[in-house]
Amino acid sequence: MINVVVMSMEYGLHEMIVSNHDGSYTVFLNARDSNERRIQSYHHAIRHLERDDFEKDSVQQIESEAHM
Fold first, then answer.
1. Which residues lie closer than 8 Å to 59 by C-beta, 6 or more apart?
2. Which of 31, 36, 43, 53 is the S-S candidate for 48 at Cβ 3.0 to 4.6 Å?
């Protein structure tokens, strides 16, 4: 299960994913972004979940692979 929360976050931070204790995830999207940007950010977050990026150690490697 994936929960989505739209909230004001720092400028330049588009999304954040949190693993919940019940095995679900919450994707936080920045309310300050445009609707189009939030959709892009949501898809970016989903790709991380599909690739099991929570099991990896290197944030730089994760982001590098996500932008290929």
1. none
2. 53
Tell me which residue of 42, 22, 38, 40 sits closest to 30, measured CA to CA.
Answer: 38
> Which residue ranges make up each domain of the chain?
2-66
pLDDT, tens digit, 9 for 90 and up, residues 8-65: 999 999 999 998 999 999 999 999 999 999 999 999 999 989 988 777 664 555 455 5
DSSP codes joined into one string, 7-46: E---TT--EEEEE-TTS-EEEEEETTS-HHHHHHHHHHHH
Report which of residues 5 and 65 the model is more confident about.
Answer: 5
